[in-house]
Amino acid sequence: MTSSSRPLPRILEKLKLTRDRMHILSLYTSLHASGVVHNDVEYRHWLRPPGGESSRIRLIDFDCAVVRDRRDEEYGSEWEQLVEGEMARVKSLLGTV
After folding, report:
1. Could you give the 3-state DSSP secondary structure of residue 7?
2. pTM value > 0.85
């Protein structure tokens, strides 16, 4: 983490509410559509550059990520479970479930 970036606050009330929540959900949706599961959903992995708007929030720390090989047919239901589990965790942290 650079000194110019900071973790998003752990207290959800300090998020810019709906706009930030929707952007974070969108980041994970795009990630999953690209064949990646972050696999370590935590507040500390959501960064906003100083003075940044919600559209500038970034996901960091992909060392636990799982990348889907789209040629691998076996991954079907297991992949869906990974994605569903991760989205449930994201929504839980965001307070949207």
Report:
1. strand
2. no
Task: Select 6-94's CATH number: 1.20.272, 3.80.30, 3.30.110, 1.10.510.
Answer: 1.10.510
CA separation for the pair 36, 42 (Å, rounded): 16
Q: For the segment 49-91, what is each residue's pLDDT rounded down to a tens digit?
A: 777 665 688 999 999 999 987 766 656 688 889 999 999 999 9
Cα distances (angstroms) measured from residue 81 to each of 3, 39, 43, 77, 85: 36, 12, 22, 6, 6
